[in-house]
Amino acid sequence: MKLTDNEIRDINRYLEAGKTLPDSYRFLLFDDKREVELVWNGKTNEVCNVVLPFQIVEQVDEPRKEKDTKSNRPFSI
Length: 77
Hints:
The protein is an all-alpha fold.
């Protein structure tokens, strides 16, 4: 990991002020653990199990009625 002097200075300022680091610095510092994560205010680490009802779909296979081919007369001039 190679950080520029400006990046080190900015990181120190954030830490001294007690602020969270922006994502760009977080990925520079911890580049070996790049994971996708959704972050929002109020997000908790609690795991909740939700039981969802399942929907049963019935499918009835009935044969189609054959079209009456005798009623389809060809067009004549």
